[in-house]
Amino acid sequence: MARKIKTNDPDILNLAKLVDGPKSILYLKEDLIAYDCDGFTIHKHLPKAVVFPKNTEEVAKIVNYCASHDLPFLARGAGTGLSGGAIPINGEVIISMVRMKRLISVDLENRRAVVEPGYVNLKLTNMIADKGYYYAPDPSSQSCCTIGGNVAENAGGAHCLKYGVTTNHILGLEVVLPNGDIIDINCEGIADVPGYDLLGLLTGSEGTLGIVTKITVRILKNPEAKQTVLAYFDEVSDGSYAVSDIVSAGIVPAALEMMDKTAIEGVEAAAFPVGHPRDIAALLLIEVDGISAGIDEQINQILDICKRRHVREVKVAENEQERARWWANRKTGFGAMGAISADYLVQDGVIPRSKLPEVLERINQISEQFGLRIANIFHAGDGNLHPLVLFDARIPGETEKALEAGSACLKACADVGGSITGEHGVGIEKMEEMRFVFNEEELAAQTRIREVFNPDNLLNGGKLFPSPGRCVEVKKNMKEVASAKQA
Amino acid sequence: MARKIKTNDPDILNLAKLVDGPKSILYLKEDLIAYDCDGFTIHKHLPKAVVFPKNTEEVAKIVNYCASHDLPFLARGAGTGLSGGAIPINGEVIISMVRMKRLISVDLENRRAVVEPGYVNLKLTNMIADKGYYYAPDPSSQSCCTIGGNVAENAGGAHCLKYGVTTNHILGLEVVLPNGDIIDINCEGIADVPGYDLLGLLTGSEGTLGIVTKITVRILKNPEAKQTVLAYFDEVSDGSYAVSDIVSAGIVPAALEMMDKTAIEGVEAAAFPVGHPRDIAALLLIEVDGISAGIDEQINQILDICKRRHVREVKVAENEQERARWWANRKTGFGAMGAISADYLVQDGVIPRSKLPEVLERINQISEQFGLRIANIFHAGDGNLHPLVLFDARIPGETEKALEAGSACLKACADVGGSITGEHGVGIEKMEEMRFVFNEEELAAQTRIREVFNPDNLLNGGKLFPSPGRCVEVKKNMKEVASAKQA
Q1: Would you call A194 and B354 a contact, using CB atoms and an 8 Å cutoff?
Q2: What confidence score (pLDDT) does residue B1 get?
Q3: Which terminus, N or C, of chain B has the lesser number of Cβ atoms within 10 Å?
Q4: CATH topology for A224-339?
Q5: Residues paired with residue B184 on neighbouring β-strands, in sequence order
């Protein structure tokens, strides 16, 4: 980074003074390009600057400066979000949290840890593993995503079926509000907070209500044992029914994942191939954890159910190494699509489990209708689908077609009483699709909350809720990104 | 109820027209007296009227009428709340939900049921028990409290240690907002809702943000087996350490309850005596559930821990009958205090589990300082204390002393990083104590939310947050109630 500020822009000069000078701010176009999008790459926009505060006070100063100078701003963690929540669509000042990455304290007795928002998800588990504890939410990006970002998006993960998503593991937050106030919601405290559930409200608010600067999380004791089952099916519907049967039997697996043929093609072509047969229709990856004595019985039940549902082959991981390989293979999931397609768009719909066969069939129809392959790799146990629409942005019109196909998949979810996001958030990707699940009054109840916290909409504005002008502008920019790729 | 309206009050006449006429409204003083308080009996105030709508549309009409005529109003379930949330301190029109008590649907496959707010908590479990399912939140008042009231207060219960409080079991809500809008947050849908967490925000908002008219709850499969342990200790600290040891061992009991000597004296004098020895210092009631194979191992661990902590006697329930008797004895808890004291005030503090011995000792000191007996009967596993301050309101000044002692107990909880309510809510009882855990900015962030939903504060106004005038007025009325009792 530059040692001296090479611009006369007074905002840049002033912002630099609020942090540690030139080494804590980026403002040159070549530096800003890395921040023009997040994990949702279809829309790009350059920020005005990126600042790197090192503590809460600096965050509050930056927020105060932006608020009083009418500069839009937003917070960014590792930038792995999948719905565009960290994209500076208004040329925001990005407040990067990556230097606020301390593990502040661990309190094993009361099962909690306090971290800064830039702390990487998996590091927490790694730090406490030898004491027999872990942090449960495990998004596929857990080796690089930050807990602050997880809070913003209410991130999920494979093991959220049994253990719940991020919001179920947040005990306290310190937050800088858009007016510069610093509030502490139970950050040094315990699980129950009187009054309105601000913790729940801020968690998953996609960076539009405040900037989280400290997080108290729940940590869990490692289960005594875990066992993992891999099952190959010749029919998707048999796999789907097996999912229903397992849950109906009263088993709550720690994870219950499904991949279809196209998804398997992808993960087998990526970094951690397992050797799955290529001609199966679907696989299930099922993990059970708990007390050793109880697990064997559950595993036997699961094997029986798979057999009744005509499984071609089913096996239990023989050791931790095999289990880890199966999971590494699963977790390459989305990125692996790059091995079989120029581009992909991941969707994130949720449906009642009982509708699984019906909705997977509908997604098949959408794939045929748009002439685009759609891979399915998802958290089957909680009905959280991830249709991956494969396309090639270099082909004129295909980006738009992919977006339409993705939207149709979400409509299919909403139509069976489902939802348009389970763990990736709405961001700029699904603003219009919010209308699939909410009417005007319901949207108004939400936007009024934003107005309270964020009256000028300077903090991460123009996201999360449909606003016709904004959606049109984003769609227009998406077309431009597509055109640029074709050129 | 009267067949003809015997008043010329135009509001009463108009409200009657919005429901089924005279049989759906109470307005005579003798009828209103039953509604002058809820489970928090220290403050009383007559409502203007009580109306009994039979569906959402009637609720919306009543709300619209009140809003446009500047009449304060509030919703009431069974009136078992313990912090005064349903007391009409402003002479509200009470909207009673007791006629909206249908079980609308049960969907076992997707583990959810839809109920009206007046549906009684325990009825749901009774309705689905033969199919092998149950509804988890189990406040001690579950045989009469309504699920609507549980949502308002985010009610807990003995089994919330493992299964979570009400908010963890709410999948959707239909709500009439104070402006008359009816919003449906995922009422026919599934677990994940995009946008801000309105479900979480409304659950536990103590009837100040909207009136819930339909509720989708999660239902759970019955555990395969459960076993219950009763352990008697000669020292409170031994019991406290046993609690810590059990949780540290990685066991998550379904319930982990504690009662001290005074509490035992009460429950043994009430409807379901068990024959607990009267000379012990504390007992633990511990329940483990799950897969049969795993439970025996956990029970053995628990017995070992109790022995290491010098238990005098410990036993496992021999059959369902014995288990049920132990629980019936525990659940008479608060009411049982009536057998040993003229009056009692129940508090509801939460502390980190590791602070249990320290805080119980502090409560002892408070008891001595105020010269009032304090019984402790509480959810030890999640650190949710219920000090019961015993007093006699007929003795001049003793009500005030009890209130002060109760407040001191909550301060003791807050001082160790705890909270002032775990499951009973703030209501009118703990408004001032909110300052123990929140500063002005933090309170402002919450009251701004109320302003959004409830700008004129007509819905259940003057509760939940400290406002000096209001607190003084409530305290004054408490003194009047106390004086009236002495007379």
Answers
A1: no
A2: 46
A3: C
A4: Alpha-Beta Plaits (3.30.70)
A5: B174
ipTM: 0.86
Instruction: Please give the CATH architecture assigned to the domain spanning A1-222.
Output: 2-Layer Sandwich (3.30)
Q: Is A451 on the interface with B (CB under 8 A)?
A: yes
Q: Which amino acid is it at A463?
A: K
| DSSP H or E stretch at residue B313 | strand B311-316
C-alpha atoms less than 13 angstroms from C-alpha of A287 in its C-beta half-sphere: 22
Domain ranges of chain A: 1-222, 224-339
Helix (H), strand (E) counts: chain B: 16, 20
pLDDT in tens, A181-238: 999 998 877 667 889 999 999 999 999 999 999 999 999 999 989 999 999 999 999 9
Cα–Cα distances (Å) from B265 to B273, B280, B281, B357, in that order, read 10, 10, 11, 21
Nearest C-alpha in B relative to A244: B109
For an interface test with A, which of B162, B190, B295, B411 has the most A Cβ atoms less than 10 Å from its Cβ?
B190
Amino acid at B324: A
Chain A residues with CB under 8 Å of B417 CB are 188-190
Q: Do A194 and B426 touch (CB under 8 A)?
A: yes
Residue B482 pLDDT class (50, 70, 90 cuts): low
Of B182, B195, B350, the CB nearest to A192: B350
Give the angle B217-B223-B227 at the CA atoms, nearest 5°: 130
> Domain B223-340 is in which class?
alpha beta
Spatial separation of the C-alpha atoms in residues B173 and B183, rounded to whole Å = 8
CB contact under 8 A, A383 and B190: yes
Residues in chain A, pLDDT under 50: 1-2
Q: What is the CATH number of domain B10-96?
A: 3.30.43.10
How do residues B378-436 score in pLDDT, each as one tens digit?
Answer: 999 989 999 999 999 999 999 999 999 999 999 999 999 899 998 899 999 999 999 99
Measured CA to CA, the distance from residue B428 to residue A158 in angstroms comes to 43
CATH number for the domain whose boundaries are B103-221 = 3.30.465.10
- Condensed to tens digits (0 to 9), the pLDDT of residues B240-277 reads 999 999 988 889 899 999 999 999 999 999 989 999 99
pLDDT in tens, B268-291: 999 899 999 999 999 999 999 988
Whole-number Cα distances in Å, A107 to A119, A173, A217, A485, B248: 17, 16, 10, 50, 12
Rounded to the nearest integer, the mean pLDDT of chain B is 92
Q: Which of A142, A159, A164, A290 is nearest to A227 (CA)?
A: A290
Residue B212: which of B155, B277, B146 has the closest Cα? B146
Chain B nearest-CA distance from A348, in A, is 11
